[in-house]
């Protein structure tokens, strides 16, 4: 691998002249655009019709218990546009009128309370950029049927700025009994999706959110109210939140017993694997893309860890023989997607592109072999192995 100089020395000229003979021709051929009046203004913006990235809707027998995946390869920076945030719902997207939506907070509290949306917006708000990742993200890679592009392999992860009231504030308002140990959060969707969360987490960084990327939550993300449980498996981030009950023990709901437990090789299952471990994926160049011939390219992708802040992302282009530190570009935030970038000169030979991240607890992303050695292949949630993309001589990048 031929490392390129870091930003300051990396002029546009040196980056492009080495590989792209067509650049000169492009400049010569450039013509002044015609002066036509543009389109009129519009009340709610749309992206350019030239942009076509969409969520991937894998066909399912029951569209209501389905998921859609974020086109990670089409994104810049760390924020997922709300219209492209992945979705997962067990019983479809309910249509909820915020004027009639209420949050009931009861159980082991001094004062059971009911909050309207108006009530919730009177509390001091907090905004934080956090990822949500479904526990089942990258399960295809674990079982040995690797996702063919970043969207299909890693697209059950998205990152937004969420705004709302800390759950701690609302619990303080109700007064938590000394006997309380857990909270049970329930959605107002048809399946009444519910999860138990330790009180310690509920009092730490959990947000009762109504805002997403500067506007109200999207219906798919839980409009008008959802839990954001930073760094914990997506399933605990209860959407269409209608009820929080303070309790003394976990309630062993369907999604913490029949699902989202990790069946180990010895036949026993791990309960409550809440934390999402460090994971990363190269989004460009990646499966489904084609390199335009030898020369310079940016290797870029995303890294995230439910345990904390990404400290380091290493990239290998030779199948793991050698690793080089990528730059972390833009905001580096706890429990948020983190963008990495490395300039790379492709010499036209076959290459294997991999990324490996480390967070501020020292946890490093393992290889698939290391994960499988411990956890086997019974359970397919919470997999975080290193992902490889293969560059072929014809410039095509594939998952094999
Ligand atoms: N009420 C409710 N909350 C829910 C779900 C659901 O089906 N109903 N799905 C969960 C799952 S499995 C995941 S991964 C996340 C996905 O959040 P998103 O659709 O906003 O990406 O929501 C969680 N919260
Ligand atoms: Mo999920």
Task: Give a structural overview.
This protein has about 400 residues and is mainly beta. It has 2 domains: about 80-270, Sulfite Oxidase, Chain A, domain 2, CATH 3.90.420; about 280-400, Sandwich (Immunoglobulin-like). Helix content is about 10%, strand content about 30%. It has 8 helices and 24 strands. The protein has helices at about 10-15, 20-30, 115-120, 140, 150-155, 165-175, 200, 370-375, and strands spanning about 1-5, 65-70, 85-90, 100-105, 115, 125-135, 155-165, 180-185, 195-200, 205-210, 215, 225-230, 240-245, 260-265, 270, 280-285, 295-305, 310-315, 325, 325-330, 340-345, 350-360, 390, 395-400. Strands 1, 16, 17, 20 and 21 form a 5-stranded antiparallel sheet that branches. It is globular, with a radius of gyration of 23 Å. The mean pLDDT is about 95. Bound molecules: ligand MTE and molybdenum atom. The site of molybdenum atom has 6 residues, from loops.
Structural class: mainly beta
Indicate the CATH architecture of the largest domain.
Alpha-Beta Complex
Helix content, binned percent: 10-25%
Low-confidence stretches: none
Count helical runs: 8
Counting copies of identical and different chains, the oligomeric state is: single chain
**C-alpha-based Rg, rounded:** 23 Å
Name the beta content range. 25-35%
Distance between the termini: 20 Å
Got a strand count? 24
Structural key phrases:
Immunoglobulin-like; binds molybdenum atom; Sulfite Oxidase, Chain A, domain 2; 5-stranded mixed beta sheet; mainly beta; 24 strands; 5-stranded antiparallel beta sheet; binds the ligand Nc1nc2c(c(=O)[nH]1)N[C@H]1C(S)=C(S)[C@@H](COP(=O)(O)O)O[C@H]1N2; 8 helices
């Amino acid at each position: 691998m031929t490392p390129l100089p870091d930003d300051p020395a990396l002029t546009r000229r040196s980056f492009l002249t080495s590989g792209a003979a067509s650049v000169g021709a492009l400049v010569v051929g450039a013509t002044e655009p015609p002066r036509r009046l543009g389109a009129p203004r519009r009340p709610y913006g749309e992206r350019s019709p030239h942009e076509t990235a969409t969520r991937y809707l894998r066909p399912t027998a029951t569209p209501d218990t389905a998921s859609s995946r974020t086109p990670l390869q089409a994104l810049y920076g760390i924020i997922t546009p709300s219209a492209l945030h992945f979705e997962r719902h067990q019983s479809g997207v309910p249509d909820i009128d915020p004027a009639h939506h209420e949050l009931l907070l009861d159980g082991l509290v001094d004062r059971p309370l009911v909050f309207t949306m108006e009530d919730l917006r009177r509390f001091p708000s907090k905004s934080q950029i956090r990822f949500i990742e479904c526990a089942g993200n990258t399960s295809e890679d674990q079982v040995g049927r690797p996702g063919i592009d970043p969207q299909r392999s890693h697209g059950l992860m998205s990152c937004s700025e969420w705004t709302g009231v800390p759950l701690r504030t609302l619990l303080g308002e109700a007064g938590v009994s000394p006997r309380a140990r857990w909270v049970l959060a329930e959605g107002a969707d048809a399946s009444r999706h519910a999860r138990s969360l330790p009180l310690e987490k509920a009092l730490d960084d959990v947000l009762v959110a109504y805002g997403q990327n500067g506007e109200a939550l999207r219906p798919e993300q839980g409009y008008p109210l959802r839990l954001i449980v930073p760094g914990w498996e997506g399933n605990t981030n209860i959407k269409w939140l209608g009820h929080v009950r303070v309790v003394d023990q976990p309630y062993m709901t369907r999604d913490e017993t029949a699902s989202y437990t990790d069946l180990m090789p010895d036949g026993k299952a791990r309960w409550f694997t809440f934390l999402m471990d460090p994971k990363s994926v190269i989004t460009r160049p990646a499966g489904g893309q084609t390199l335009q011939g030898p020369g310079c390219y940016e290797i870029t992708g995303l890294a995230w860890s439910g345990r904390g802040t990404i400290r380091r992302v290493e990239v290998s282009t030779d199948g793991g023989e050698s690793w080089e530190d990528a730059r972390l570009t833009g905001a580096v935030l706890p429990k948020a997607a983190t963008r990495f970038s490395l300039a790379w000169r492709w010499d036209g030979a076959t290459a294997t592109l991999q990324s490996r991240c480390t967070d501020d607890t020292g946890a490093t992303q393992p290889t698939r072999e290391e994960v499988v050695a411990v956890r086997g292949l019974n359970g397919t949630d919470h997999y975080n192995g290193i992902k490889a993309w293969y560059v072929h001589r014809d410039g095509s990048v594939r998952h094999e």
